[in-house]
Amino acid sequence: MTRPTLAFLLQHPAHFIALGFGSGLAPVAPGTFGTLVAIPIALAVRGYAGDATFLAVIVVLLGVGAWAAQVTGRALGVPDHGSIVIDEVAAFLLVLFFTGVTPLRIAIAFVLFRFFDIVKPPPIRQVDAALKSGIGVMLDDVVAAGYALLVFAVGQRVSGW
User: Fold this and answer.
1) Structural Rg of the chain based on CA atoms
2) Residues 13, 49, 25, 107: what is their CA dihedral angle, to the nearest 10 degrees?
3) H-type helices in 79-130, by residue range?
4) CB count, 10 Å around CB of 85?
5) Residue 139 pLDDT greater than 80, yes or no
6) Using one digit for the tens of pLDDT, what is the confidence trace for 42-96?
7) Domain assignment present for 109
8) Crossing angle between the packed helical segments 103-119 and 86-99, to the nearest 10 degrees
9) What is the pTM of this model?
10) Largest CB tally within 10 Å, which of 36, 92, 107, 145?
């Protein structure tokens, strides 16, 4: 699997979006770098807008991200290429919408989301394997976000963080 270049990133708007505004070019752990991109976005939206705008940003990124992932996956010859990280950006924004954006909550949510995105317990792995499209790329991370939110909620209930 070849790594995309800066030239590829700038070749089409879909590539720029799908590669997480450049974070997908990271030589190691691009999904982790893509997840980190969501943090300043969440802080900015939470700081300057309300819940409706935050949700609108998530919905737009999920929709545009599905299109961008489809276009970019086709161009790279791999539907869910490791450098496509808009799914991590959008899904982690969803997590942060519900967990909040204090440093402790961000850190806990980050670890939980990355764990479920990497391990891919059922049905995440099945969704990832079955849907080789832009929607599939986005959907498996949304399911990982759901797992992270569930564990976060239980942890919050038990420990009160």
Assistant:
1) 15
2) -160
3) 86-99, 103-119, 124-130
4) 31
5) yes
6) 999 999 999 999 999 999 999 999 999 999 999 999 888 999 999 999 999 999 9
7) yes
8) 140
9) 0.93
10) 92
Evaluate whether residue 1 is within a structural domain.
no
Give dist(CA 88, CA 94) in Å, integer: 10
Q: Is the dihedral of CA 111, 114, 118, 121 positive or negative?
A: positive
Residue 128 is assigned to a structural domain of this protein = yes
Using CA atoms, how far apart are residues 38 and 49, in angstroms rounded to an integer?
Answer: 16
* Euclidean distance between CA atoms 42 and 84, whole angstroms: 20
Contact of 97 with 20, CB cutoff 8 Å: no
Per-residue pLDDT at 111: 98
**160: three-class secondary structure by DSSP:** coil
Total domains, the chain: 1
How many other CB atoms are found less than 10 A from the CB of residue 38?
A: 27
53 lies in some domain? yes
Structure tokens at 80: 């869910």
**CA–CA distance, 46 with 100 (Å, rounded to integer):** 9
For residue 121, the SS3 value is coil
**How remote is the C-alpha of 44 from its chain's centroid?**
17
Whole domain around residue 147: which residue ranges? 6-159
